[in-house]
Amino acid sequence: MRLRRLHEKARQQEEEEYEYASAVRRLRRRGWSVLGNAPRQVDHTRFNQIKAEREAFRAECEGNVVRKIQEASKQRENILQQIAMYKEEKARQENIVRDAARQEREEQNAKREEYLTLLKERAANTRAIAEEEREFIRECAATESKYRQNRIEILRERVFAKTYTSGLLTNLSGTLCGGGRQYPPGDWRNTFKSPLRRLPNAGDDAFRKQWVTELQEERRAVARAEVERTKRLQTSAQREAAYRDNCERAEALRKEKDALRERKKQQCEEVQLFHKALRQQEVEGQKRREEVLRALRESKRETASIIRQAIEEEEMMFQTLEDEELRQLQERVAQMKKNKTFSPRMALSPPAERVL
């Protein structure tokens, strides 16, 4: 807008000069001259110099503006490249974190499957051992029942015998006297009180039944005590083995949980550090972008101020030139008014002869 106004002013000034020169030419044609005998050559060296300086300064300003624009474009391209690199790095880091989390989940699933398989194997082994123990207990019970039935049959045959041979009495007397068969220590036959000691009552059915009942009860108590002792020994051993297994399993689970907790804590710390680094990078990138934008705004402001100052100086220069030319024209008009006689030698040259 300012350049347009300046061009308008220059064009108006040229038109006014042309009109003034036309008026002077018309006066010369009439034979009147008011400015001198000979046409005076106008020196426009200073004006041309100022105009050249103005053009050079304008070209320099335009070159500076173009250079600033190119620098800003390069900086913008660099910023866009940095932003693209930052986005790629961020995506790569996110992919790394995602792959690490997926790998960790796969490892945890594999460990869980392995642990479940181990638990199933241990449970199967425990069931097999329990089944073997139950089978052994059943076999022991069957053997004990068979042995008890055999002993009861033998004792029944002895008790219900109606006749006694001499050999039998001899053996019984030897047994009663202590010179018969010897049994191992702790055997029930060493402490057994035979009803044959009471020979007069041996034929009593009620006595025989009572004796058989007591014998059966005593044998059942001894067998029950033996079975309980065996079960107690086996149960205590199994309980101790199960307790040791449970302790070892609990210790292994505790160690595994501690390791998992430490791994999770370490992973959380790594994720926090990664997020912190990302936030720092984002903050630094934002600061760099703000600094670049601030520098661009400052450079733009400085360029605008320089251009504005150059335009103001140019306007001042044109105003000075206009004032100088107007003053010269006023002086000439005043000189024309003072001179009463007009001479054609004092007239100005036409615009075609002026050196602009």
Automatic annotation (TrEMBL):
<feature type="coiled-coil region">
    <location>
        <begin position="208"/>
        <end position="270"/>
    </location>
</feature>
<keyword id="KW-0175">Coiled coil</keyword>
<feature type="region of interest" description="Disordered">
    <location>
        <begin position="337"/>
        <end position="356"/>
    </location>
</feature>
<feature type="coiled-coil region">
    <location>
        <begin position="69"/>
        <end position="118"/>
    </location>
</feature>
<protein>
    <recommendedName>
        <fullName>Trichohyalin-plectin-homology domain-containing protein</fullName>
    </recommendedName>
</protein>
